[in-house]
Amino acid sequence: MVDVFSKGIPQDITQILKSRDMRVREQLILLKKLNNNQSLINAKLNIPGPIKNNAYLIQVFYRGLKRFLQESKVDYRLIWDVATGPEAFLILDGSAKDSKQAAIEFEDNDNLGRLFDIDVLTEDDGVPHPVSRQDFHQVGRKCIMCDQPAKVCARSRKHSVKEMQNYISELINKNVELL
């Protein structure tokens, strides 16, 4: 079995916050490009610990993104391969509502989808605003390890980073033939 987290450049909170600021700027630019029946998607991996990107995680990202987009018409695609993790900015044909429903289906039911955080964004007073699962009367995401609410496990630190990384490595090894 390949240890998915054996390589990579550790990231700290400063780098992650800087990446978040760059992400918001890009989202604002792209929201202004949307036509009436288009939606803006920001897809990234939800990876615990300091290693957020390496050759293995890139493979998972592209494989999962391809699965998510298999029935979508993509009008615009920008991929960031940055140390804080790969990200995709996509403009898709279709409403934000339809895109969010597809994202929920993928995140909840695809083995690789469990590793993704797919935001569908709208603009609210000049600020990118993610469409929420609650807007569709959906419960929040479940923990990848124990099916409890993910926010509860994260706040309480129920699972160690190492436990989550081991679980994710096993999941990836079962679902992706790593090069």
UniProtKB/TrEMBL annotation:
Listed GO biological process terms: prosthetic group biosynthetic process
Entry keyword annotation includes Lyase: yes
Name of the protein described by the UniProt record: citrate lyase holo-[acyl-carrier protein] synthase
GO MF annotations, alphabetized: holo-citrate lyase synthase activity; lyase activity
Catalytic activity: apo-[citrate lyase ACP] + 2'-(5''-triphospho-alpha-D-ribosyl)-3'-dephospho-CoA = holo-[citrate lyase ACP] + diphosphate
Root EC class: transferase
Lineage per the UniProt record: Bacteria, Bacillati, Bacillota, Bacilli, Lactobacillales
Domain of life the protein comes from: Bacteria
